[in-house]
Write a structure and sequence with these properties.
four-stranded antiparallel beta sheet, Lipocalin, mainly beta
């Protein structure tokens, strides 16, 4: 087994992760500050519906899925200057709005 060094500790400290729920939609993220990369996974009614990677070169992405009885349209933007992830979410169930909002998902 390799020795655990200060560099390994710094790599671990540079990562932040979490999960937010918006009714039947869940977003899980991992922010790697050193790599300047954000990975986000989305589930709708516990079904995986998308995986995106945000970076300064591609700061915004969309996840859209229609399961028939439930649908989600999610736009996520990583602002690497202000160090935050912004969202715009529209979740419907049986054609009715469940969640329709925008805001700041997380800052680092």
């Amino acid at each position: 087994m390799a020795d655990f060094t200060a560099a390994h500790a710094a790599d671990i400290a540079s990562m932040q992760s979490g999960t937010a729920n918006f009714g039947i939609l869940s977003l899980s993220w991992n922010i790697d500050i050193l790599a300047m990369q954000i990975t986000i996974d989305a589930t709708l009614v516990h079904k995986p519906i998308g995986h995106i990677v945000l970076s300064p070169a591609q700061p915004s992405a969309n996840i859209s899925e229609d399961l028939g009885f439930a649908s989600a349209d999610v736009t996520l933007t990583g602002n690497f200057t202000t160090k935050e992830i912004d969202y715009n979410i529209d979740v419907k169930m049986m054609g009715n709005d469940v969640v329709k909002k925008q805001g700041k998902l997380v800052g680092w």
